[in-house]
Structure formats: structure tokens, C-alpha cells
Amino acid sequence: MERRVIFAIVLMLIVAVLPSILFPPKRPVRPAPGPPPEDTGTAARRPTPPPAARPSRPVLGGPTAGPMPAETVWVTTPLYRLGFSTLGAQLIAVELMGYKSFVPGDGGRPAQLVHPGRGLLGSELIVGEDTVSLATVTFTPSVRSLKVSGDSATLRFTATGRAARAELAYVFSAREYRFRVRGAVEGLGPAGAVLRVSLGDGLRSVEADPPTDYREYAIVTKAAKTEKRGFGDLKPGQRQVLDGPFEWVGVKSKYFLVAALAFDEHQLFAGALADGEARDSMPEASLFFGTKLTPVADRAAVAFTLPLPSAGRFGYSVYAGPLEHQRLAALGHDLDDANPYGGFLRPLIQPVAVLVMNVLVWMHEQLNIAYGWVLIIFGVLVRVLLWPLNQKALESSIRMQAIAPLIKQLQERYKNEPERLQRETMRLYKEHHVNPLGGCLPMLVPIPVLFALFFVFQNTIELRGTPFLWLPDLSRADPYYILPLVLGLSMFAGSKVSQVGVPPNPQTTTMLYFMPAFMTLLFLRFASGLNLYYAVQNIVSLPQQYSIAVRRLKEQGRPKPSGGT
Question: How do residues 352-369 score in pLDDT, each as one tens digit?
């Protein structure tokens, strides 16, 4: 029975983990630095005909031949530093002060989430059959820089033309990564318009291992439920219109998120657009949801739309910050689902992963110790809590071994009577107080926690870049492979001790060497924090296994094991 359980565990590990390692999803290529050759990869920028050709549409920017040179207005809070361009009042820089970039060329500076030369929140007005790009309009800021130290500070941008006036106001708080956007466009006419706002074509990677980061790039939306579409799952050149209304729309990397939130404004987005890019030129986009993209492979430009009434007023919020579960959960509306745990096992893994992560964060904050020590203490606590259950399981194993000769006799006696054999076997179990599943269940209890920790270390920002002893980052593999070897040796020691006093069996001997070797290879490239937790679990279980081995030998009238057992 125990051998079957071990094989089942191995199969579960293979099914849950190995597909993502052997067949990773198609990842977006890393964009080249600097601006794209023609467009920013955000909203479509169609040439504006002369005013006389379209007298009914808004005209912004005045009679000058082109936009004024762009300036950058910096907004600084304890959490972030944002840069807004006067050209289109776009967000062109998001620097998170509490998170370092691990890209070698960044030199440990704060994580910068926006590609150089590109922007977020670039807007277009769709008025009837016309499209007016506000991203090419020069706005006048209310201040040249803004330092936020309280609950509210506002940065305003205005642009006035011959037939229209546009105003954008960004409202910031020093205590949160969310800021509010208020706007108004005058001169729309009674039919109103549609505002299309860009969320860019993917965040800038700030990780030491960009390919792994790119595999997590996705578009996340919340309508009736939360949905995630990985960039690697989009078909090149295939435009996708995602029907709303949406409570929020976002673009995520492995650890960070930029999302537009409508639930604060008592209105919903009319829709969101996700376009897979291809190297070939794309056809002209449709007027309402379309967008024209720079031909760079395997990225996706994302935009959401808002209906504008005739008064032209609108509002929404933007979250630009870490995928921190507790912070996102506090905002409500399932925003924490933007960072799901578990893949296709999510219904089973997500609740356990959230619970485990909350426990680890609580221990870190309350005990004021490094996450490495938190993992060691957590591993010891889990093993201590399971000690009584494991004790019963090991005792059940001893009783099973004691009646093994009797079971063998029954099998020989009733080999041609399967129903009689089953009845007699169950009677034997009852007489000797043996539960045939007693040795299996305790082995299965820690498995959900182990699976949950695997996914927690995959994309939990609290553990990103966390060093411990010789380990530079608990969320990445041990560079010296020390922990995987300790894990394998501790597993071998536990298996060796558990076989003391057990009659020799070729299959058991094979598993004694196969399982530790297999688990060492499997965990070789897993997060070092996961290796640390599992190795601690194995080491802490050794005294209990030794005590059971001593008891088994005592009942057999043999001396307790010493040295090489």
C-alpha cells in the first residue's frame, strides 16, 4: 500500500510540475531597448485631417504646426516615483521605490516598469467615424514636480484648442499604489464619444531571469469572473476583442501589475482590447475597438474603452505596483485573483497557497526574522503538528508487518476464492486492530502544503530577492545545489531508518535509492526556499522514524540500530 502511495505522489508531482518545465508556454521575445520605429505600441495614432474636413470633431492643440517639445513631470511618494509626459499627459515612468531591479544594466536601481520611449494611459477619442489621438497633444501641467506626503495631492493637465478643451487630473495618495484619474473633454456634441485608453504592450522586465518572467506576462480582466490570458497564448496577428463590461482590466508580469479599475467610479468599462502582434503588417483596425500595432513578435497591446456622455466627463483608477496578495485583496473585487496560484490545479491549490502565504507573512512580521528562518520554523511546526498522526501511522505499519506472514498464509489458502480471501483479510485486520490505510493518509497530508509552497515561490513578491545565508534569492534555485543534495540525503536517511527491522524486499530496496535520487533531480531547479522547507521536514522527521525503528527491533527481540543500521 505504501509503495502505491509513493508512486501516486510521484505521478502527481510529474503531472503538476514537469509539463511546465519540459513544455513551457511560448514566451514573448524581449523587446529591444528604445522607442519602436513608428508607433509606441499603445493606441492608434491616425493622421488628423484639416479642421475644415471634419468640422464636427474636437480640435485640440491649437494652430501650431506640431506639438511642443515634451517635458516630464515627476510625482514622488514614499512608494513610487511616476513620470508623466506633457505630450498626451501619458505615464512614461513607474519606479517602485521598495523593489530593486535585478537586470544587470540597472545597477540595483528601483524597478522601472515602463519600457523606455513608451507610455501608458495614452488616450484616443472616438467621435462618430473619427478618431482623435490625445497622445499627440501637448498638455500644460499645473506643476513641474509634485511630492506627495499626505492623503491627497493632485496633478492637472490641460490642453485648449480652437474647438475643444481637454483636462486630466491625477489624484495621488502617499500610502497606496493606486491613484485616481479624472478627466473632461469639452465640445463633444450631444452624441458624446468613446474614450480608448492604452495599457501598453507589456511591462518592462526587471528580473534577473527575463525568460521566466515573460512566461508570466498576461492580460487579466474581471467581469462576472476573473480571467487571465497569457501573452504566449495569443495567436500572432489575431486581434481579440474582449467583451465587457469589466470591473477592472490589467497587464501583469511575474511580480507586478498595472491595472485600470472602474469599480471606484460606479461605472464599468465598455470593453477591453487585446491584440497579438505579428511581424507582418496588420490590416486597418475597426473603428470602435481596433488598434494599430508596431510589428514586434509575440507581444500584446491592451486598451480599454469608456463611454463619454455629452458633458465629456470620465473617471477611473489605476493600480501600478506589486502583485502583493494582501494589498490587492484589501481593494476588493477579486483584484487579488490577478495573481492566481496553482495553474490548472487552482481550485485545490489556491486556498491552501493563500493560507500558507498569510501564515509566512504573519510570522515574518510578528517575529521580525528573515524569511529563511520563517521557513525553517514553519517546517518544524508542520512536522510537530503531524507528529501524533505520523506516530499512529508508523505504529500501524509495525502491526501490518507483524501480521504479514498471516496475510500470506490466507493468500495461499484462499487464492482461488477472492471473496473469501477479502472477508478473512478484513477479519484479520479487525482482530489485530490494523487499519490498512493508516500508514498512507499521513503521507498525503503534507502534500497540499508542499504543492502550495511550490506555487507560492513561483510568483509571490514577498519572497522576491530575499537572501538567506549563502542563498541570494529564496525564490530562485540554489546556485550551489547544496539544498537539493541535503534534501536527497535526508530523504535517503529517512527511508533507510524506516526499513530497519523490515524483511528485505527487492522493490523496497529499489525505492530506497530511486526516490531520493529522483527527488534531488526534480528539486534541482526549484526555488531554494521550497528546498529549504522540504529538507527541514525530512530532517525533523528522523528522530520519530528512529524511535519507531528501535521499537520495531525491540518487539523482534533484536538490539537497537547503531551506526550503519
Answer: 888 888 899 999 999 999
List the end-to-end C-alpha distance of the chain, in Å, as a whole number: 24
Question: Using alpha carbons only, what angle is made at residue 334 by residues 330 and 335, rounded to the nearest 5 degrees?
Answer: 70
Alpha-carbon span 399 to 469, nearest angstrom: 43
Q: Which residues, other chains included, contact 201 with Cβ-Cβ below 8 Å and sequence gap of 6+?
A: 41, 42, 118, 277, 293, 294, 296, 299, 300, 301, 302
555: number of CA atoms within 13 Å, CB side?
13
Name the residue among 448, 349, 354, 443 with its Cα closest to residue 397: 443
- Contact by Cβ (8 Å): 482, 470: yes
For 245-294, the pLDDT digits (tens) are: 888 999 999 999 999 998 765 556 667 766 654 333 322 222 223 223 23
The rounded distance, in Å, linking the Cα atoms of 351 and 367 is 24
Cell numbers given for 438 = 493508516
Under a CB-based contact definition with an 8 Å cutoff, are residues 471 and 33 in contact?
no
Whether cis (ω within 30° of 0) applies to the bond prior to 245 is yes
Instruction: Report the phi/psi class of residue 472: left, alpha or beta, with left for phi > 0 and alpha for psi in -120 to 50.
Output: alpha
- What whole-number distance in Å separates Cα of residue 38 and Cα of residue 532? 49
pLDDT reading at 500 higher than 80: no
Amino acid of residue 563: G
All three cell numbers of 256, joined, read: 507586478
Please give the grid coordinates belonging to residue 564.
550503519
Residue-wise pLDDT for 163-201, tens only, equals: 678 999 999 999 999 999 999 988 777 878 888 899 988
Q: Give Cα separations from 531 to 299, 486, 492, 540 (angstroms).
A: 34, 9, 15, 14
Which candidate, 431, 149, 481, 124, places its Cα nearest to that of 303? 124
What is d(CA 96, CA 103) in angstroms, rounded to the nearest whole number? 14
**Residue type for 10, please?**
V
Q: What is the DSSP string of 494-542?
A: HHHHHTTTSPP-HHHHHHHHHHHHHHHHHTTTS-HHHHHHHHHHHHHHH
Which domains, ranges and CATH numbers included, belong to the chain?
70-339 (2.70.98.90)
Is 153 within 8 Å of 58 (Cβ atoms)? Answer: no
Minimal CA–CA distance to 296: which of 337, 236, 349? 236
- Give the ranges where 414-481 is alpha helix by DSSP (H): 418-431, 441-444, 446-459
Model confidence band, residue 506 (pLDDT cutoffs 50, 70, 90): low
* Angle, CA of 160, 183 and 138, to the nearest 5°: 35
Q: Average pLDDT, stretch 450-468? A: 86
User: Which one has a higher pLDDT value, 507 or 189?
Assistant: 189
